[in-house]
Amino acid sequence: MADQPQSDTAPKWWSRPAAPQAEAGSAAAERPAQPDSVPAADTEPLPAEAVPAPRYDPWGEQPLQVADRGKAAGGGPVVRVRHALALGLGIALLAGGVGGWLGVLAERRSSTRLELPQAAVESKNRAPESVAGIAATALPGVVTLHVRGSAGSGTGTGFVLDGQGHILTNNHVVSDAKDITVTFSTGESVTAQLVGRDSGYDLAVVKVDGVRGLQPLSLGNSENVKVGDPVVAIGAPFDLSNTVTAGIISATGRPITAGGDKGDGSDISYVDALQTDAPINPGNSGGPLLDAKARVIGINSAIRGADASGDGAERAKQSGSIGLGFAIPVNQGKRVAEELIRTGRATHPVIGVTLDMEYTGDGARVGTKGEGGKPAVTPDGPGARAGIQGGDVITKVDGVRVHGGDELVIKIRAHRPGDPLALTVLRDGRERTLDLVLGSANGS
Question: Are residues 211 and 292 in the same domain?
Answer without folding.
Answer: yes
